[in-house]
Amino acid sequence: MKRYATVEDYVTSSENWSQELIYLRSILTETELEEGVKWGAPIYMIDGKNVVGIASFKNYVGLWFHQGALLKDKGKHLINAQENKTKALRQWRFNNFEELKEQTDTLKSYIAEAIENQKAGKVVEMDRAPKPLILPNELVDAFTKDKELEAAFKGLTLSKRREYGEYIASAKREATKMSRLEKITPMIKEGIGLNDKYK
By its UniProt entry, which InterPro entries does this protein fall under (predicted)? Predict the structure, then answer.
């Protein structure tokens, strides 16, 4: 998908949907939203936070409400373009200019609600389940032989423990795993993370 530097470039480049995009843009620029471009398409924000985007595709032109799942959507206009993947984003599609004109008042009310939600700080909470910590057998065996090493390892942050576990597990040969274990043992005991020197 081509990326555009300005909203004007995006709108005028659309052969089939320029009228609809110009109209949608006129509605959005009447609000307090700040206009910009992100990911090569027009975006409308409050304090740098995405509220609404507009885009044209082969068969339709649409608005993207970045926290659309929070909108009341009494008219059932919003769809989740990626069911079971997208939690917050919702899209309203229009197939022609007449359809867009007919829905102008309702669309404006959705935009107003999206603005109020953003100003109120309402966001869809994302599931951020941490990745499980999986330790390679070589490391687990080393802990049974060296309790000081195990205690020091448990004292590290989860991300540092994960880095060490992945460092050993990613080695293909057993000899490499053991040489890596030998290298990191003093680092773990000193409470140093594998990548601390790069941070």
Answer: YdeI_bac, YdhG-like
